[in-house]
Each structure stands twice: as structure tokens, then as C-alpha cells.
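Lesson 9: reading folded outputs for more than one chain in a single document. The general rule is that every protein is listed as its sequence immediately followed by its C-alpha cells, and records are never interleaved. Here is the first one.
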Amino acid sequence: MSALLSVLLALVSAGLTHVSVRHCEGRRRITVFAAAIIVFVAATYFGDALGGFWPGFYTLIVIYTLATAITPWIDLWARSRRG
């Protein structure tokens, strides 16, 4: 259960990073990005369930990177479907 929680937290962190970069300005951008960092730190706390600290950390970094790379495409797809 902790492994699933850590992966979901890494995905939420990637989503918050996307929101902070694309949709926020000024102080709100800093606040949302700080929240993304805090959520990723929480994901690494539960990441021990993925095989220890370093294997879990590297797994979460890969998940975070892939999710951050795909979120602009999901946003583009969602905007094109709206009209």
C-alpha cells in the first residue's frame, strides 16, 4: 500500500509542477511549486516500500520525470477536446 501511495504522490507532484509552471504567476507560482516539492518529499518518505531508499528514490524520479513530460500533452489534448 505504501508503494502505491508513493507513486501516486509522485504523480501529484508532477501535476502540481505543471500547474505552477503553466498556469500560475508570481507568488502563487512559488507557493504551488513549493507544495510540489513537499509532496515529492512525502513520496520519497513512503518510497522505501519500493525496495529501499535509493531504489525507491530513483524509481520515483523516473515516474516524476515521465509524468512531468507527458502533462503538457494531456493539457493540450484536454484543451482541444473542449473546443
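And here is the second record, again sequence then C-alpha cells.
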Amino acid sequence: MDKIEEILIQVSDLGNLLEIGISTKINRVIVNKNVYEILPSMIERFYSIIRTWEENYSGSILENSEMFRILLKEENKIHTIEGIGLYPKNYSEFKEWVGEVCVRDLL
């Protein structure tokens, strides 16, 4: 994960789409088109959360199923992790992390 340059996170729930973009080179995060500084420790925490995740999680899709997609840009490669209707066992920890990143946009 040391070579990851950019991260794009998309979470869609009940028709609402949240996008978070992170530049790991300059420790910047974009939430709702607003740019903030992000601490390297927050990026490291993100990595520790998704470290064991598989590339695809899909289960029974219900009308209110939440969808998530994470794109990790590493030099000329893009790695994708995504899911709908089925989630990693520590998905709630990921959602907490997302909330902490987004709270700045609400202040």
C-alpha cells in the first residue's frame, strides 16, 4: 500500500452518493468538492481497515442495499474493491472512518 497515490471512495445509500478523493502524496482529501488536509495517520488507518478485504462482495440486492466502491491508484494500475448487499466483517469500522473524514465538511 506504500505506492498508492490516490484513493477514490464511493458509498451510495438510498440514492445518496458520497464521494471521497484522497491524494496520499500531498495528504489532501476532497469531500463534496471541498478540499481539506488529512493526517497520514488517517490514511494508515484506512489501509489497516481494508488490508484483508477481497475485491468483490455481492449478495442479495434489496431496494435499500448500500453500495461501496474503492479505487486505489498505484502508478499505472487501478485496484478496485466493491460490494453491494454483502460487506466485509469490519465494514462498520470503515463507515466510522468515513464519518470521521466527512465530519469536517459538516462543520
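What the second record shows: The longest helix spans residues 91-106.
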